[in-house]
Amino acid sequence: MNQHKGNLLTDHPELYEARFPDPERLAGRWAEDCLRRHGAGPAVLDLGCGTGRDAAYLHRAGRRVTAADLSATMLAHARLHHPGPVHVQADLSRFDFGRGAFDAVVCLDSSLLYCHTNEQLDGFLTSCRRTLVPGGLLIAEMRNGAYFLGRAEPPATPGTALFTWEGTTYRSTTTLYLDRAAQLLRRTRRWTADDGTPPVEERSAWRLLLPQELRHFLTVHGFEVLALHDGPGPRTEPVWRPGAEPGSAADGDRLHLVARKTTALASVHPPVGERP
């Protein structure tokens, strides 16, 4: 079996869009709703933009959008099929677009969770703070660590998906493993296709952040949390619809974040009289 070093869907963006269709552009509409609800300015950075569908929606909504991704293949697809935004290659754990360049940073589809270590997460938030104007917004949507770490194990039975693109049927079998020590949800995905190509096995992982842990990181980096909830959102059941109010719970499969850059970094040291 081939041990694929990348990600089949990332390396073939057309397959990604076939496997995860979003004909209603729910992710982009949800992000635009958050931007409007909290009064964000027009300049938006979409980090981990993937195929570029969400960035293009924000562009059509009247935003000045820069779409950033680490994958040159994804960016090439976005430029061709979802034009409008400026597309640039960047690592979300360390990027620099200039100080105060954007009114909002948007990070959807668990892209933030590819920051596997505290150092990478610190780098992401430091970079976000630098690139945002005072009062700028950070909007993110991701898997929820509380959902997975609060349960015995992920599903023991591998999940299977089947879809067809350009006459070829693809089948993926996904197995999840909970690495508690590293707080990672590790994923092994095996791909087969009916066109005679050899099977492909690939491995990836997401950082599992607890809601209170995420609040702490944000506070330390000078952000005020305006909303942190498990739904509704673009990938929840039921899905988000225009006019839906954010929930108050944070223990479901997805986590949705809106945070605002404050004027100063927070102090994490307790008052002198309370120190041990």
From TrEMBL:
Question: Any coiled-coil ranges, and where?
Answer: none
Which keywords does UniProt give here? Methyltransferase, S-adenosyl-L-methionine, Transferase
* Cell membrane found in the keyword field: no
Return one Gene Ontology term, BP aspect.
methylation
Segments of this protein annotated with the region Disordered:
231-251
The residue ranges of the Methyltransferase domain are 44-136
For this protein, the Enzyme Commission number is: 2.1.1.222, 2.1.1.64
> Record's CDD domains?
AdoMet_MTases
Superkingdom as given in the UniProt entry: Bacteria
Could you say which enzyme class this protein belongs to?
A: transferase
Output this protein's name.
Class I SAM-dependent methyltransferase
Give the species this sequence originates from. Streptomyces argenteolus
